[in-house]
Amino acid sequence: MKLYSWNVNGIRAVWNKGLFQKFIEDHDPDILCLQETKAMPHQSPVDLPQYEEYWNSAEKPGYAGTAIFTKAKPKEIINGFVDEVQKSFDFVDKFGDPTKEGRILSARFEDFWVVTVYTPNSKRTLERLHLRHDVWDAAFLGHIKELEKTAPVLFCGDFNAAHQEIDLARPKDNLKNAGFTAEERKGFDDILQAGYVDTFRSRHPGEEGAYTWWTAWGGARQRNIGWRIDYWLASPKLDSKIKKAEIHADVMGSDHCPVSIELV
User: Fold this and answer.
1) Which of 132, 156, 199, 251 is least enclosed by beta carbons within 10 angstroms?
2) Which candidate in 118, 196, 211, 231 is catalytic?
3) Structural domain tally of the chain?
4) What is the per-residue pLDDT across 39-82, written as a single tens digit (0 to 9) for each?
5) How far apart are CA 60 and CA 70, in angstroms?
6) What is 158-217 written as a DSSP string?
7) Percent of the chain having pLDDT more than 70?
8) Phi, psi of 219 (to 5 degrees)
């Protein structure tokens, strides 16, 4: 079984370029998790009859959003956080309520949960770092732990954080910048300390230049001046069933590239 995650930076744009169709033809995912869809389901031009489609779209038009396309019908779908988590945190800040931005979608299958997440950015001036560090990261880990009570979890998406220096091209220049602050890195540490596995890094511990996002400026992608901020993570019970974890930097259409895992 092949599971892919891709921040498409607008599903309509990548479809209209013909690049989404090419990706599906070349890779044929069994489950595809999307972030930053920037569309309501009725606005999507995607026509792929082999997939069931599930959407969690932002209330704000053309913004954020997640989706799961799957060949197997899930047993259950949860839009947003589980109720226990939703009630435990105050998510609203001056920028709004991230729980109304379609940032989390969870699907229960026979043997596991699959979760796609589009983590809020801390903003260039770190104005949203408090929400990110003190609220969102804790809430998201709580969400995964709640799901874990019923089945192991595979979770993926754009975490808007590079975990270690090896995960971005210029770590020293970005120590206090959004995506590489100590607080954001600790949020990722907390996930790993809870026992979940960074599937790519556990299988490619020393691989440098393995990035999933590049700025549009200065030919960054061509020069591979990037960040690894898109991940697949797994419950320990599932990690042994993952035979591959890959980054597909050759897939074009977005400022992010897809990442994947393959289950035996």
Assistant:
1) 251
2) 118
3) 1
4) 999 999 999 999 999 999 999 999 999 999 999 999 999 999 99
5) 25
6) E-S---SGGGBS-TGGGTTSTTSSHHHHHHHHHHHHTT-EEHHHHHSTT--S--SB--SS
7) 100
8) 65, 35
- DSSP state, 256? B
Q: How far is residue 175's CA from residue 152's CA, in Å, rounded to a whole number?
A: 34
AA identity, residue 66: T
The pLDDT, as a whole number, for residue 138 is: 98
**Which CATH number is 135's domain given?**
3.60.10.10
Copy the structure tokens of residue 75. 């047993």
First to last CA, the chain: 7
Active site residue 118: yes
Average of per-residue pLDDT across 210-216:
97
> pLDDT tens, 99-147?
999 999 999 999 999 999 999 999 999 999 999 999 999 999 999 999 9
Which residue is listed with tokens 């990442």? 259
Q: How many Cβ atoms sit within 10 Å of the Cβ of residue 101?
A: 22
Which residue of the set 51, 54, 137, 158 is catalytic? 158
* Phi-psi map region of 163: left, alpha, beta (phi>0 left; psi -120 to 50 alpha): alpha
Report the candidate in 74, 75, 76, 78 with the shortest Cα–Cα distance to residue 66. 78
What is the rounded distance in angstroms from the CA atom of residue 137 to the CA atom of residue 191?
9
Instruction: Identify the band that residue 241 occupies on the pLDDT scale cut at 50, 70 and 90.
Output: very high
The yes-or-no answer on residue 196 being catalytic is no
Average per-residue pLDDT for the chain: 97
Q: Which structural domain, as residue segments, surrounds residue 21?
A: 2-263
* Residue owning tokens 């960054």: 220
Inter-residue contact 168 to 228 (CB < 8 Å): yes
pLDDT reported for residue 257: 98
3-state secondary structure at position 8: coil
